[in-house]
Amino acid sequence: MCYQRLVWLFIGTFLYSFSSIIAAAPASQLDAIKEAAEGHVQTLITPPEFGKLEVQAGHLDSRLQLSHCPSALEAIVPGRQSLNKSVTVMVSCKEDGWQVYVPVQIKLLTPVVVARRPLDRGMTIGADDLIVQLVDSRFQRGQTYTSSTTIVGSRIKRVVGIGEPISGNDICMVCRNDEVIITASDGGLNIIAKGTALSDGALGEQIKVRNSKSNRIVDGTITAVGQVVVKF
Q1: Pairwise CA distance, residues 93 & 56, whole Å
Q2: Span of the secretion signal (predicted)?
Q3: Where in the chain is the domain with CATH 2.30.30.760?
Q4: Domain 178-230, what architecture?
């Protein structure tokens, strides 16, 4: 009698362990499907220079009844989908004849100068006001900057919240009525003069400036805080 109880106890323990293995199998297969979808998307997109590519497969229904594929899973992006914010990947097992559509989120993170603290209109930006962070390209608007030293000394034109990227529309590297350094270049010849800005502008923008000595108004391109270049 005692021997029979031991036998049944052994059988029961074995069946419980076996059922646990069966229950865990679908979960591991779903993980493999998600990994295949993510891996395929990573092969299609070149990560940004000095940045980072992040892909994240979405949730799959745990009730899916899928066999363990005897060979490597295949993944494709069906149709003419743009590899922008998200994409749907079809993962399939040819031997067992099943396929699953997996939603995958895409993030292209690039280094961008953001506000370390709230920046109020009219304040001059200092080095301690800025920090460089990896930011999703979807949340970048207009001209942004990768080096904080580029815009230190600029003036805030509109409020920038903590953690928000600094855009060219948020600042003036040269502000109206500011005194500026004018560099007039012609080949290897450079002439430096002082002038007054007649409008606001950011890096690379063209503004009008008045030469303080000649009183002549010229078009200059902003190359740095308080500096413009004029070609003649």
Answers
A1: 21
A2: 1-24
A3: 178-230
A4: Roll (2.30)
Residue for token digits 């220079």?
A: 49
Contact (CB, 8 A) for 232 and 187: no
DSSP reduced 3-state for 70:
coil
Residues 202 and 143: beta-carbon distance below 8 Å: yes
60 burial via Cβ count (<10 Å: 0-12, 13-18, 19+): buried
In the chain, the N- to C-terminal Cα span, in Å, equals 109
**pLDDT tens across 189-228, in order?**
788 999 999 999 999 999 999 999 999 999 999 999 999 9
The answer to whether the pTM exceeds 0.70 is no
Topology of the domain comprising 110-172 = Type Iii Antifreeze Protein Isoform Hplc 12 (3.90.1210)
